[in-house]
Amino acid sequence: MQLALREVTKRFGSLVANDRISLTVEGGEIHCLLGENGAGKSTLMNVLYGLYRADGGEIVLDGEVQHFTGPGDAIAAGIGMVHQHFMLVPVFTVAENVMLGNEQTGFAGSLDLEAARARVREISDRFGFHVDPDAVVGDLPVGVQQRVEIIKVLSRDAKVLVFDEPTAVLTPQETDELMEIMRELRRSGAAIVFITHKLREVREVADRITVIRRGTVVGEADPAASNAELAAMMVGRPVELTVDKQDPELGGTALVVDGLSVFDSAGLVHVDDISFEVRAGEILAVAGVQGNGQTELTEALLGLQDHVEGSILLDGQELVGRKVRDVLDAGVGFVPEDRQVDGLVGSFTIAENLMLDRSFDAPFVRHGSLQLSALQAFAEEKLEQYDVRAPGITTPAGNLSGGNQQKVVVARELSRELRLLVAAQPTRGVDVGSIEFIHQQIVATRDAGVPVLVVSTELDEVVALADRIMVLFRGRIVGIVPADTPRAVLGLMMTGERPTGAVA
């Protein structure tokens, strides 16, 4: 099947999200749509999928112009989308999720669940997914949940598959597995549109690359192009892909974690008796495959975990047992790993989100009254300083692209007097231009003498930012090593193997 988009235009009021975009995708091809967050990639695909109606242009499948009134029409025409944020019901089984919206019935109108199970097994066996049709989706790892999304699309005989930022929530290992799945789908003859901003992934699987910047196609790129060339096309300027930082000017020990353990309500240990220190003016980066205690560690530092043993001292002040509000007031800044769940209130404006940590303090509140002029001035300053691309400060945060949402979180947290910055997955789902900016802000915070703890599953990010690297495996510290430790050694440590000379 051939997909052609011709002069597609989509407006939201005065904002032109897609400006006469044209591209063609052939069967048996992976066509990468590359661009910054907010460039208009997802909007274009939502037009293709029938979620939005274009204000101009045409969608053509095998030479026939389509007129989609909703996703049902797009699905019927053979288009399937794997969304960045999964469209699954956690309490349903795999088979139940796959048949949802496409239910087959048997005798007396009863649901034919066995047919759905058989379909899951058929697709899973064909592509090597290894997915149990009776498994409850909420119990599955993130990477397997994504396979369920793909099975759901394939079960409806999709010939055009759209992957919208599919690796944003995946570990490096899960990303590699997805790349192989996409290759297998290409070999089956599917036409694949791959939306991403990650340059390594683009170069690894793309047959053709179309680059979009601010809603307009700025050109096609060769998959053999360098990272620097692709980044410059995306952003419209040269981008520094390495972190420029000087040797740290270390102060005294600021954060002391001693014998810290974190349990869940069932008594399962997620962080197992770990101890470490971070000095003022230092970045300690935590590496490891997602799910090895990193989330529970950062949440314990913020007072978000209920079952904690051990000690967390910040400048000699104990944080364990204190409320989150008290921890924030003690000068801890927190960039959470999931900005939509823990970092922002989507229905609040940008301005309101920027004052969340300081909603009781001057200059925003005086004598119990909100000072709108002070909030407006502050928000407009941060919008410009952190290059948040939005119509204005009254825009709901939920309407922003992922990268701009992350900039709002970073702007809020770094605009306070900090004694510690905890940044969990600070650039997850963020484009290359925003990554450069966020890394600069983290390094500037370190250079101002603040201790920084960065948690990331991206090894490139860990190596780029760290002054020292701490590797976690199954909730325990495998070792703490210098930032120039070879990647091969770090990779072994992430499997639980402790190298000679590593600090335990």
At a glance:
The chain is of the alpha/beta class and 504 residues long. 32% of the residues lie in helices and 26% in strands.
Jot down its keywords.
504 residues; alpha/beta; Rossmann fold; six-stranded mixed sheet; 22 strands
Describe how the helices and strands are arranged:
Blueprint lengths: L2 E10 L2 E11 L3 E6 L6 H8 L7 E6 L2 E3 L4 H6 L2 E4 L11 H6 L13 H15 L14 H13 L5 E5 L7 H16 L3 E6 L2 H7 L2 E6 L2 E6 L5 H9 L17 E11 L5 E11 L3 E5 L6 H9 L4 E8 L2 E2 L5 H6 L2 E4 L3 H5 L6 H5 L10 E2 L2 E2 L1 H14 L16 H13 L5 E5 L7 H16 L4 E4 L3 H7 L2 E6 L2 E7 L4 H7 L11
Parallel strand pairs: 3-8, 3-9, 6-7, 7-8, 13-20, 13-21, 16-19, 19-20
Antiparallel strand pairs: 1-2, 1-4, 4-5, 9-10, 11-12, 11-14, 14-15, 17-18, 21-22
Helix pairs in contact: 14-15
Describe the fold and architecture.
With 504 residues, this protein is an alpha/beta fold. The protein is 32% helix and 26% strand. The chain is built from 17 helices and 22 strands. The strands form five sheets. Strands 6-7-8-3-9-10 form a six-stranded mixed sheet, with helices on both faces. It has a six-stranded mixed sheet with strand order 16-19-20-13-21-22, with helices on both faces. Strands 2-1-4-5 form a four-stranded antiparallel sheet, covered by helices on one side. InterPro entries: AAA+_ATPase, ABC_carbohydrate_import_ATPase, ABC_transporter-like_ATP-bd, ABC_transporter-like_CS, P-loop_NTPase.
In the CATH scheme, the class of the largest domain would be Alpha Beta
Helicity, as a percent range: 25-40%
From the coordinates shown, what is the CATH architecture of the largest domain?
3-Layer(aba) Sandwich
CATH homology superfamily of the largest domain? P-loop containing nucleotide triphosphate hydrolases
* Fraction in beta strands: 25-35%
For the residues shown, what is the average pLDDT? 88
* Total number of distinct structural domains: 2
Envelope shape = globular
Strands, count = 22
Task: Characterize the largest beta sheet: strand count, sense, and whether it forms a barrel.
Answer: 6 strands, mixed
Supply the helix-strand structural class.
Answer: alpha/beta
Question: What ranges have pLDDT less than 50 throughout 5 or more consecutive residues?
Answer: none
What separation lies between the terminal Cα atoms?
A: 56 Å
Oligomer: single chain
- Per DSSP, the total helix count is 17
* Largest beta sheet: strand ordering: 6-7-8-3-9-10
CATH topology of the largest domain: Rossmann fold
Q: What value does the Rg take, in angstroms?
A: 24 Å
